[in-house]
Amino acid sequence: MKAGKFEIADARATLVGVLAEDGISPEALPIRRAFELMIEFFSKWEPLGVNLDEDGDGLLFQWGTYDWDGAENPLFEVDITRQLITNEDDEHDEEMHHLHWTFQYEPSDVTQGLGTGEAWFFAPVSLSHPFQGILTSPTLLSIEGMVVHKVVLEHELV
């Protein structure tokens, strides 16, 4: 993956464009490869307008079983999120943006045993940063053979 800079509002479009250059569709990747690419995007692509001294560029690895729609249809989610916080100035308030890459699975005894959890990382970092902990986590290792219910790549203003 090449390196570059991007506007926060264009985070999703930038990631999708970088992937498309290599013929990659975000929804068609296995979870491990998607997480490797998000880590690489975090390490090589610099967001414009964030304050790195105030943790304005973060990477969150999280998992757990959630029922977001309230329809009693919980799903186990494994997510890697790039959190971007804009600089505050006289004309603009600080804004928090999330670029989520979420993999959803039907709950099972395996996912129930994984519970919920999270790990945070903040820029600046390099690929030598201890991201191996994400890629070799019990969560990823346990779900690698499971059938994915749905993959979502979205950018939201929180």
UniProtKB/TrEMBL annotation:
This is Uncharacterized protein. It comes from Microbacterium halimionae.
